[in-house]
Structure to design on (508 residues):
């Protein structure tokens, strides 16, 4: 993701961050959900397609078809443009690309494309192209500047924010859409520090609020922005693993910037518990929801979150570079002091006053003129959520993950693929990450064969589960093709092994 989520990787901005990111990528995760055998318990696994494993390739394919037939969300797949026949498989977003065809066992150029990279860029909703044509042809082409009022362009950031709010568990009047995730992270962190320092001013005898806690395994941009916010506000940054944030928060802590779901491993952190611990220490919480918005219930209001940001082009399917969102809890809006006040966040923007008077509500989180084409593409994309229960989406995500891991255990050779995503449902986002040698070459070969996930250094294969359009047949085929690659059919350069190992030796 180009902003604060996953387009490329980095070591963070300091030794503590780099070390924590390394340990997080190596965190173990026994696989299989409650009441289900883990793949390491389930059997030894076999060469893909042999039909001699615990369930056998054929039995798993039948089970996938049966699950899809019973899936109440299956009809939503038709709301997206997908390659259910052969199509372009030239790459997997940031990372390796492969263009050659393959005429191996049943997964050559004539086979459908399995798209498991919606955790990086969501698929195109069918509602978007027609809407954009209308915006370009009529609203821009004919109405031109009149569309700022007649077509509702000026109020789009708030209107789209209202459309998005229920997916975040937010009441009306708290979400505005615009700018990138990085820009919104900077606004939120600086504003939170300013609120904390204002609180301290009311009690001068208390220690200064001059510390920003940072998720040590965060996407690099969040770290860069926290460092910049610290320089601006006179704070220092301390990188802490999310599991240790509750204990780390103290009387000098102003704010913590935390990812709800780790972009490498798919581990979900305790939003409610961490937020409560920060509040108990007198600090504020800023949550990065890039890998959870649209994937699982977030419930910002219910858990008392102060500020939150996130992108809209992953599980929300807003399109490449679609604008991000900023959530400001209603109780903080009058105190929200943005470090980037712009003319569209002014209470009377067309008065063109030299001084800035912030607007009421989430509008004070705006900066400049909104990006109308991408904004309205996102608005159209959100129509796919009409009538959709987010709890049902999350339940399917967990089922897809459990079934995918079962299929990986059955289809791949034993012992050399390790799952780093937690098995516990309350600790899992909506992706499965596997570690294996030569992961970059393996992912390039998977893409060549029509299974699109992505690779993150040094050895991680990420498979995004987007229940609005991912089927059980998709994940079964992905596991089967992975098994073919790992078993050595047209083996990529380098030593490649497979098989789902039990990685339950430790949590850190």
């Amino acid at each position: 993701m180009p902003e604060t989520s996953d387009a490329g990787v980095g070591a963070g901005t300091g030794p503590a961050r780099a070390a924590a990111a390394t340990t997080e990528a190596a965190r173990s995760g026994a696989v299989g959900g409650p009441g289900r055998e883990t793949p390491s318990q389930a059997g030894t696994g076999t060469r893909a397609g042999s039909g001699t494993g615990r369930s056998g390739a054929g039995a798993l394919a039948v089970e996938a078809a049966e699950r899809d037939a019973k899936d109440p969300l299956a009809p939503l797949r038709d709301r997206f443009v997908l390659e259910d026949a052969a199509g372009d498989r030239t790459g997997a977003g940031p990372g390796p690309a492969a263009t050659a065809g393959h005429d191996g066992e049943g997964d050559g150029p004539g086979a459908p494309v399995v798209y498991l990279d919606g955790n990086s860029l969501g698929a195109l909703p069918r509602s978007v192209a027609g809407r954009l044509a209308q915006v370009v042809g009529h609203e821009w082409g004919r109405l031109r500047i009149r569309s700022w009022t007649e077509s509702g362009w000026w109020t789009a950031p708030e209107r789209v924010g209202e459309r998005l709010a229920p997916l975040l568990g937010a009441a009306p009047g708290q979400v505005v859409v615009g700018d990138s995730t990085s820009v919104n992270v900077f606004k939120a962190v600086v504003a939170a520090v300013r609120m904390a320092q204002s609180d301290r001013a009311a009690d001068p005898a208390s220690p200064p609020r001059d510390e920003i806690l940072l998720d040590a395994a965060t996407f690099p941009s969040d770290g860069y922005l926290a460092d910049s916010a610290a320089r601006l506000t006179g704070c220092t940054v301390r990188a802490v693993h999310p599991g240790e944030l509750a204990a780390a928060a103290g009387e000098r802590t102003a704010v913590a910037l935390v990812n709800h779901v780790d972009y490498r491993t798919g581990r979900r952190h305790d939003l409610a518990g961490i937020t409560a611990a920060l509040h108990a220490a007198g600090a504020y919480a800023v949550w990065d929801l890039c890998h959870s918005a649209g994937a699982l219930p977030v419930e910002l209001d219910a858990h008392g979150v102060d500020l939150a940001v996130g992108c809209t082009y992953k599980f929300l399917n807003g399109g490449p570079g679609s604008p991000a969102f900023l959530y400001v809890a209603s109780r903080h809006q009058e105190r929200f002091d943005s470090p980037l006040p712009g003319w569209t966040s002014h209470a009377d923007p067309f008065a063109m006053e030299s001084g800035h008077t912030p607007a009421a509500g989430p509008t004070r989180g705006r900066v400049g003129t909104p990006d109308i084409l991408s904004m309205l593409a996102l608005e159209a994309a959100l129509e796919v959520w009409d009538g959709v229960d987010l709890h049902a989406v999350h339940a399917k995500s967990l089922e897809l993950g459990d079934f995918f891991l079962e299929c990986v255990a059955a289809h791949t050779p034993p012992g050399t693929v390790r799952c780093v995503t937690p098995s516990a449902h309350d600790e899992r986002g909506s992706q499965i990450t596997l570690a294996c040698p030569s992961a970059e070459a393996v992912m390039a070969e998977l893409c060549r064969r029509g299974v699109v996930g992505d690779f993150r250094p040094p050895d991680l294969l990420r498979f995004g589960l987007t229940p609005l359009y991912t089927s059980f047949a998709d994940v079964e085929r992905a596991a089967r093709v992975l098994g073919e690659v790992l078993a050595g059919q047209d083996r990529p350069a380098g030593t490649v092994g497979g098989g789902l190992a039990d990685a339950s030796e430790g949590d850190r």
Q: What stands out?
A: Residues 13 and 223 are 6 Å apart (CA to CA).
